[in-house]
Amino acid sequence: MFIVEGKSEEAAFGAIFERLFPRDLRPVFAEERSDYLTADSAQPERLVKRLEDLLYDSARRNHFRLEDVVGVVQLADTDGCYVPDSSVIQDDKAGRIRYDKRRIVTHDKKGIEKRNAQKSRNLDRLAGTEELLGIPFVAYYLSCNLDHVLTDVRNLPSKDKVRSAMAFAKKYWRQPERFVEFIGDPVVAAPGGYEDSWAFIREGLHSLARWSNLHLLFENARGYSGEETTVEETIRLVFGLTIAEDREEA
């Protein structure tokens, strides 16, 4: 199961993930419909409970049992939340918030500083969470947001986000292995393993730059098993499903 902020993530990744995942592992998207990581009620100590409630609700609406969920993946935009306050610039004439390589421009500097502090704490909590309701959990980021990672455009108007995501899906869904190559390209892929990639995005202005650690879910790597693995095997290993057990069941 993938926990996402809105419709754009499923539009971009849904069809691609269906082709990448093993046939017996169906990706399901649970939409928060907002950036809940910055909501006043989303304090780190309440975060896990909120996600657990979302799992129960998604299971009810999609007619599956929680026992059928083998793993939960959080996809989250960074929105520059780890940058120092000195990189948040007050501009009384600014309309919507604007991101660039080195700064966040806003008419409400104090408000964005507060947002950044809250979102960074919540992302840190997610990065350190290993399970929800006994189900393996991992969190991956898109920096500075989904549009930036997919199209190298930071400030895409809201009305164009879903359309842009659908165009991205159309480009890759027939050849999903090309998506794996794209998300694993060093231009986009944050360096290091899971913990290192989170340490990297916290540094300096990295959370404003074009980075993601989503490639760790798919890459053909030695990180999980100590041996070379296929994309399908890596996905299973991420969620704690050993290849040996799967073959025995088959």
How would you summarize this macromolecular structure in one to three sentences?
The chain has about 250 residues and is of the alpha/beta class.
Report on this model:
There is one protein chain. With 250 residues, this protein is an alpha/beta fold. The chain folds into two domains: 188 residues, no CATH class; 29 residues, no CATH class. 40% of the residues lie in helices and 13% in strands. The protein has nine helices and nine strands. The strands form two sheets. Strands 1, 2, 3, 7, 8 and 9 form a six-stranded mixed β-sheet that branches. A three-stranded mixed β-sheet has the order 4-6-5, with helices on one face. Helix 1 runs parallel beside helix 5. It is globular. The two termini are 23 Å apart. The C terminus is likely disordered.
Order of helices and strands: EHEHEEEEHEEHHHHEHH
- Our Rg estimate from Cα atoms comes to 18 Å
Structural class: alpha/beta
N-end to C-end Cα span: 23 Å
| Number of discrete helical segments | 9
Percent helix among the residues? 40-55%
Strand content: 5-15%
Shape: globular
pLDDT averaged over residues: 88
- What kind of assembly state do the chains in view correspond to? single chain
The biggest beta sheet reads: 6 strands, mixed
Q: How many β strands by DSSP?
A: 9
Number of discrete domains: 2
Low-confidence stretches: 220-225, 242-250
